[in-house]
Specification:
Blueprint (H helix, E strand, L loop, with lengths): L2 H8 L5 H10 L6 E5 L7 H10 L3 E4 L24 H17 L2 E4 L26 H17 L5 E5 L18 H11 L6 H13 L7 E4 L1 H4 L16 E7 L3 H4 L1 H4 L9 E5 L2 E5 L1 H7 L1 H9 L7 E6 L8 H14 L3 E4 L21 H9 L14 H8 L3
Parallel strand pairs: 1-2, 1-10, 2-3, 3-4, 4-5, 5-6, 6-9, 9-10
Antiparallel strand pairs: 7-8
Helix pairs in contact: 3-4, 5-7, 11-13
């Protein structure tokens, strides 16, 4: 018996192998949480409130925070030259607050070199990353630096390499194409700059040069569509990878543009999807979400490695509560990890279910214009109940 190992354990030392097992073991049982896409770095009360509901993790995006240069943490998406020290310090302080609350964090950038998030790019989709592999090397350098800086932070549960990539968008592959068409498209694009699995392999290799143990989360293509893993011929060659999709389908009904219609599309109801008018209800939601499950089963990827990293609907849509119930029913059935969109977002109220179904008062928008903290109180509402009751069971 190695008594020195017992002695070190009593002192609180954890051998590297055990650290690795613990990081991945967090994801061995279903984990439920929320998304934080706030314009201001969240304070301690924010994370404490999410944890009080029963959440175990939070997916944090920082791209709306005030940057030292053009783009937060990247410096400038036009050319990466290192992590700005003040941005990194801000991110560390946020991770510290999440850790004090008892939450694990998945770091989820919305931008990479050559792929500036459209809302920070005057509303224009940035396709450079998917045309020029020079930006792949810069993205690898960025993630290598992030891993070096944050690999020992106790809050970090995964690196989500990029939020909602869409290398297919400026090509000839439509959203929700048939599996056969997706696979033909990928066979043509494989090895080129639109090869998403190849980019992920390069970024993963860069991270592993600095950090051998932290799990890596990868979104599917076409904005993390649930059917967009279909064209992947194999999983990534790393056994610490989580595969993530987002669920807003049928987008024509769940999204903000629908609420601007004179007569919004209803859920359940007939909704345009993939060029057709389809009936969407709980059965259709389950059918659609079967796509990543089928892919994982075919590839021998355990269900514990599948994540629904975002899902939601406009809180003022009359059928939103039923939609959340239908989506969560499927996720519960298959024991998948999930994070709802979004928790107490201070720049957009559309999917902030604690606000109920009423319009927000003018002071909410005034605070945004003035760069002040969100002034609105939050509380559990009927709109939030499908999420709240499931988070409560995790406590």
């Amino acid at each position: 018996m190695h008594y020195w190992l017992l002695f070190l354990a009593l002192l609180g030392f954890t051998p590297p192998a055990a650290q690795a097992a613990d990081l991945m073991a967090f994801w061995d049982q279903p984990r439920h949480g929320g998304n934080s896409f706030n314009r201001l770095p969240p304070d301690q009360a924010y994370f404490d409130a999410l944890r009080a509901y029963g959440a175990t993790w939070v997916r944090v995006s920082y791209d709306k925070w005030r940057p030292a240069d053009r783009d937060f943490l990247l410096g400038n998406a036009d050319g990466y030259h290192g992590l700005p020290a003040s941005d990194l310090a801000t991110l560390r302080s946020v991770l510290d607050r999440a850790h004090r609350a008892g939450l694990k964090v998945v770091i989820a950038p919305l931008s990479l070199p050559g792929m500036r998030w459209s809302q920070n790019n005057k509303g224009t989709f940035d396709d450079r990353l998917w045309q020029d592999k020079t930006y792949w090397a810069q993205a690898a350098a960025f993630w290598r630096d992030v891993a070096r800086a944050l690999k020992d932070h106790p809050a970090v549960a995964a690196y989500n390499l990029v939020n909602e990539p869409a290398p297919e968008k400026c090509s000839d592959l439509p959203e929700h194409a048939s599996p056969e068409r997706m696979q033909r498209w990928y066979a043509r694009e494989q090895g080129g700059a639109r090869d998403l699995p190849a980019l992920y392999r390069q970024l993963t290799a860069a991270i592993r040069e600095e950090d051998a143990v932290t799990p890596i989360m990868v979104d599917s293509g076409w904005y993390a569509a649930a059917d967009a893993f279909t064209y992947w011929p194999a999983p990534l060659p790393d056994d610490r990878v989580l595969y993530s999709v987002h669920m807003y389908e049928p987008y024509a009904a769940t999204s903000a543009p629908n609420m601007a219609r004179r007569q919004p599309l209803a859920y359940p109801g007939a909704v345009p999807f993939a060029g057709q008018l389809q009936q969407w209800d709980g059965q259709r939601v389950a059918q659609y979400l079967q796509a990543p499950l089928n892919w994982a089963d075919t590839m021998n990827v355990p269900r514990s490695r599948l994540v629904v990293g975002e899902f939601g609907c406009m809180r003022r849509l009359s059928g939103c509560r039923q939609y959340l119930e239908d989506v969560l029913g499927v996720l519960d059935q298959h024991r998948l990890h999930w994070a709802f969109y979004s928790f107490r977002e201070d720049s957009w109220d559309g999917m902030d279910y604690e606000l109920g179904t009423a319009k927000v008062p003018w002071r909410y928008w005034q605070a945004i214009d003035q760069g002040l903290a969100d002034p609105l109180p939050r509380q559990a509402t009927p709109a939030f109940e499908p999420i709240r009751k499931r988070l409560a069971t995790d406590q």
